[in-house]
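User: I'm writing a short report section on ligand binding and want a predicted complex to refer to. Could you take this sequence and glutamine and write out the structure as tokens? A short remark afterwards would be nice.
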Amino acid sequence: QRCLSLIKATKFLNAYITVAEDTALKQAEESEKRYRTGQTLGNLDGIPFAVKDNFSTAGIETTCASNMLKGYIPPYNATVVQKLLDQGAVLLGKTNLDEFAMGSGSTDGIFGPVKNPWSYSRQYREKHVQHSHTENEDSNWLITGGSSGGSAAAVSSFTCFVALGSDTGGSTRNPASHCGVVGLKPTYGLVSRHGLIPLVNSMDVPGILTRCVDDAAIVLGILAGHDPKDSTTVQDTFKPFELPSFIDVSKLCIGIPKEYHTPGLSSETLALWAKAADLFENAGAKVVDVNLPHTHYSIVCYHVLCTAEVASNMARFDGLEYGHRSNMDQSTEVMYAATRREGFNYVVRGRILSGNYFLLKQNYENYFVKAQKVRRLIANDFVNVFNRGIDVLLTPTTLTDTIPYLEFIKEDNRTRSAQDDIFTQAANLAGLPAISVPTALSEKGLPIGLQFIGQAFQEMQLLTVAKWFE
Ligand code: GLN
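Assistant: Sure. The structure tokens for the complex follow:
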């Protein structure tokens, strides 16, 4: 009830698209009954959680913040949602995002942009918001980053204890960094994608947003493991783990990728990154500079592969099976075209067009196949570094702290999005686990996260290092 009233009190953040008040209260009552009657409790019994609105939820509208799916009520739960419900967790509702998770701002969905709760922190307002009582009063509000901005804002504003996001190129870690929460992207294949409406099948992973690293580890323990409904999940059984309370980092080797010193990185983020490296060094860890020489190809490589998969994935939205269908039904062709024109925003339509261009017979080798080869080179950069004894990489998550919405929309949105993913996309191309952990506040009083990238399926090590740091 407290979470639900907090959701109402923070409605202006626009973090939630759907609040499942009735079912949430019912689930909470059942949980309370289990507790009172001494029944065995699930690992998350009674814990309220939120889910990004690109995961299917049985009986609850799932929109992907798109006109295409507005009104669509899935008949089943995504595996990750079901696993949380099976442990007694209480589903509060569905969170806001960029349409079909394409973006880095959470500004591009049909329900409007998500506001970063830090826009209302005293330090930021005292220094950066002119006091006035006009309608402009709120004009300096900040973006959450994205595309899982609704989930990040939901955790950051204390309306839930954990929220699911998705991470294809950074969409969990980017808003986590901007909203001052923990954002974990697991190894590709560790957590089921069944019921996550796809963006890029070969890179999508469900992400976990929490207030601390221990919470992320608990939730990962529940979500991870094989799912017969997702053939890309690991076959081995995953043993949930608890993070140690005493952590010794003195035997660790931390890598600092040279190529991540990139234009656009703010001096504040750079300083925090260096300070974090010193912290590890002072605790006895070895901190070494490493090379990931293909880093600067990752944005274009991601773009080609992402749009190619988008072109194919979005073909299912044809007005026949799901959601929106145009009234223009002179012919099937006309209906298809009108449905897709009315249903998708300009970002989605743009990506479908680019993707189909890269997949044309005469372009396929030069773009799609080449991008796949570059992807392998990017993945091999990591393999080489880890083979040389590096345990974990330490990098920034984002170039700067968050910025006001009015500034964000001034620039070419898509160019900025692309630049902002420079530190996060390579981990998706390589399938590696990565986590963003809040560090200090910027001079403006806004959160800045740093990222650790780990070796495939070495989440225990990654999370242990992150916990020591947090
Ligand atoms: N910003 C990237 C994109 O727009 C990543 C999105 C994501 O991880 N879902 O594709």
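A remark for your report: The chain has two domains: 2-251+392-469, 297-370. The pocket of glutamine is lined by residues 101-104, 147, 166-171, 199, 306, 417, 421 (CB under 6 Å).
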